[in-house]
Amino acid sequence: MRRDLLDWSKALALAEQLAPAEIPYISREYAQQLEFMGDYSTALAHYENGIIEYPEEETEQIKVFRGIQLARDLHGRVVKRDCAIILEHLRQYGEAADLYELGQFYDRAAAVCLKAKAWGKVGELLPKVRSPKIHAQYGKVMEAEKRYKEAAVAYRNARDYDNLVRMLLDHLNMAEEAVKVVRESRSIEGAKLVAKFFSQIGDHASAIRFLVLSNCQQEAFQLAEATDHIAEYADSIEADGASQEQLAFLAEYFANAGDSHNAGRFYLRAGHYRAALEYLMACGENHESLVLAIEAVAAASDNKLTTRMTEYLMGEVDGMPKDAKYLFRLYVALGMTKEAATTAVVIAREEQDHGSYTVARNVLLAMYQ
After folding, report:
1. Which GO terms describe its biological process (predicted)?
2. Which of 111, 218, 265, 350 has the fewest CB atoms in 10 Å of its CB?
3. Is the pLDDT of residue 19 over 60?
């Protein structure tokens, strides 16, 4: 009965009193349990006390365990590794993993434990494991067992950001963390997953941003047009470093839609400075448009565009002189120091005449800097 309950020490004690013939068999079964638990020296002693029907096999097993014990006792990592390799070939994964771990070959120990499906032991070893492949394999195992937090940690350690994002969105309800991972890793597949998530909850602006991030430009544009989020698409395109062709396409779209400011803005980003200036000048005294127009003229280094912008700011084009601060800004952008200084003095005097001494001082200080 004690034998059936796997209470080996009591079973052996009873066998000595009641059934000595059973001692070798109980010893062998006890040795197998000790072997599984990693107590090799005690297991070896019980194997030596046991008998089986095939003495040659028994002798071979005893030799193996003597070798394991010797490798454990010897100093040096290499001997443990070499013995572990032999044991691995013999499919004695538990013993191989033990020697790999003793030799501080943690990646190999974890790999062997994966073969043996000893998930608990793999989890213990992972903090010392460097191989992304092993972390990824463990992540798949944890996912299959529905242990999603452990799977996410493993995928993160494996730098498998696509699967990490999938875990965070599909199983852990951690959308903010998924967004953070995508922004930091620039994972294209992860960005697609995040975009899909935002589309499903009706946050189209966020979905568009992540479609752009995942290089799904056409899908992003179609969604933006269908949901009236072209502005968000435009901002995402500009921030993502789109090609000149994409920027020019967007500029033309805004031009056809009658949006002169954004048409000029994207012609500027596409390097079409003349077109950019014309559209931006059409926006009148809009501050952002004037700032972009000055940027376009400075980037173009074209005398004709410089003259046209100067005349526009001075009111020679439409009879409406613009605030002198824009002319000052233009001269500074073009490196025209003398003209900028003259304009700064004029602005400062005007501000003084209006009693704005602080503003006048700041204008002159900006020129000095």
Report:
1. cilium assembly; intraciliary retrograde transport
2. 218
3. no
